[in-house]
Design a protein that fits this description.
alpha+beta, about 180 residues, three-stranded antiparallel β-sheet, 434 Repressor (Amino-terminal Domain), Jelly Rolls
Length: about 180
């Protein structure tokens, strides 16, 4: 299965779980705080949801983000070369691109992502979701707001926080890449 197929499989899995639970698009939208139109676009693979939206959808469906992203194979170790991750970044509606590491690994306890965000392309937003989050900046600089505090992070800096706090990023350099792990 290719990385493109993994991405298009997210919407299919969301639709299958929703139908299996005998729930409507509006029901899922209401429980996630998203529009019915957005859920429909996700299910029809017309858009890739932001990670925060994916967390809310997974919670609403009683599953995990990793279950929505997993491939059909079962592996105990997943090795990803940098070129593969960078070549398979998927743009989101929030203006940054993501690559979900280890989508082939089933029943993960955490979901690591590579994020790449470009200055003046990220849609300003603050979000919340269940769980904890760890951010590690690989290249570039960014501002990250967590609660009422703004942190300025550069390559090598990290942040760990409760994701129920409102949070969001803003690139300071032309491009920032960072590892974001959701627990």
């Amino acid at each position: 299965m290719t990385d493109t197929q993994v991405q298009t499989g997210i919407g299919d899995r969301v639709r299958m779980l929703r139908i299996a639970q005998n729930r409507t698009l509006q029901d899922i939208a209401d429980s996630c705080g998203l529009s019915k139109s957005m859920i429909s676009k996700i299910e029809n693979n017309h858009t890739v949801p932001s990670v925060a939206a994916l967390v809310k959808i997974a919670t609403s469906l009683g599953t995990s983000v990793s279950a929505l992203m997993e491939q059909e194979t079962w592996l105990s170790t997943v090795f990803t070369v940098r070129d593969k991750a960078e070549a398979n970044l998927t743009p989101t509606e929030k203006g940054y691109s993501i690559y979900p590491f280890a989508s082939e690994y089933h029943n993960k306890k955490m979901q690591p992502f590579l994020f790449v965000a470009k200055k003046n392309q990220v849609v300003p937003h603050l979000l919340t979701h269940e769980g904890e989050e760890f951010v590690y900046v690989i290249t570039g600089k960014m501002k990250m707001q967590v609660g009422e505090i703004e942190y300025f992070l550069k390559a090598g800096d990290s942040l760990y926080f409760n994701a129920l706090q409102k949070h969001g990023i803003k690139p300071i350099t032309d491009e920032v890449s960072y590892l974001d792990i959701f627990l």
